[in-house]
Amino acid sequence: MMSSRTSEKIAFLFLFLATLLIVVPVGLIIVIIIQKGWPAISWEFVSDIPRQGMRAGGIFPAIVGTIYIVLGSIIFALPIGLLAAIYLSEYAKNNYLNRMIKLAIVNLAGVPSVVYGLFGLAIFVIFFKFGASILSGSLTLAIMILPIIITTSREALESVPYSFREVSYSIGASKWQTIRHIVLPNAIPGILTGTILGLGRAAGETAPILFTVAAFYLPQLPKSLFDQAMALPYHLYVISTQVPNVDEKVRYGTALVLLFLVLFMNLVAIIIRYQFRKKKKW
User: Fold this and answer.
1) Longest Cα pair distance anywhere in the chain, in angstroms?
2) What proportions of the chain, in percent to the nearest 5, are helix, strand and coil?
3) Is residue 182 in a domain?
4) How many other C-beta atoms are found inside a 10 Å radius of the C-beta of residue 178?
5) 56 - beta bridge partners?
6) Residue 231: which CATH number?
7) Considering 22, 86, 120, 148, which has the largest number of Cβ atoms within 10 A of its Cβ?
């Protein structure tokens, strides 16, 4: 019979191997993208428009379009998701209907992105007549990332100790005052975690924007919410599959810029989360 020390070492070994199975492939992907894409990175590449059928020039319209779409989706999704999480965590009773709502939200997080794209096409592009536009794409991505934001925000709210609420009630604060001044400030780091996850998913999706906003080629920047826009994920798909004789370094360079853009947005959100987390007293 194995000793507890031996069992612990075996368990540690399996955990370490499982971690390597995740870290090593991701690391290899990043190394390959950097190795093959870095020669394409230049000021012209990130600041110019595509030329010669997207075989030369830069990807600036795609970068700007991606930023517009992602920020638009967060602007729509974060307030709605946070309000829904507050209701489910603080106001909703533990009955059959609310349990079904929570289950539906969790299941929606696993719906394929192409389904959200078709939904956005039917509702926003055709029914509401927004057309293929930044507004349609942002709303579609907002719906897609809502389950992530609601779930993580609800867990963050529920993680705040109930004793904090009791102290607030004891000094005469109302339920909403308690939520606003006690619960929400302590739950912000967890809420921002959901926002970071939503940012990453929204920035990297192709199918939803393919139906609702992405343009094959636009030589100018969008001027309103009702304009189409280029986007890095769709642009990468186009130059990899639809445009012949594109230099390999251009494709990998586009992927590298998308990777850097997602990492930069995540880094900003992580820094903000860290600043709030330092203020926590528990």
Assistant:
1) 72
2) 75, 0, 20
3) yes
4) 19
5) 51
6) 1.10.3720.10
7) 120
Q: Is residue 110 part of a domain?
A: yes
Q: How many domains does the chain have?
A: 1
Average pLDDT of span 89-101: 87
Predicted confidence (pLDDT) at residue 267 exceeds the cutoff of 80: yes
In a domain, 179, yes or no: yes
Residue from 110, 128, 126, 107 nearest 118 by CA:
126
Contacts of 12 (CB under 8 A, 6+ apart): none
Task: Report the C-alpha gap between 70 and 196 in whole angstroms.
Answer: 11
User: Which residues face 51 on adjacent strands?
Assistant: 56
Higher pLDDT, 184 or 269: 184
Q: Which range marks the domain in which residue 150 is found?
A: 67-278
Count Cβ atoms within 10 A of the Cβ of residue 170 and give its class: 0-12 exposed, 13-18 middle, 19 or more buried: exposed
pLDDT surpassing 60 at residue 56 = yes
CA pair distance 195, 246, nearest whole angstrom:
35
CA-wise closest residue to 205 among 103, 36, 77, 73:
73
- Residues 188, 152 contacting (CB under 8 angstroms): no
Which residue type does 239 have? Answer: I
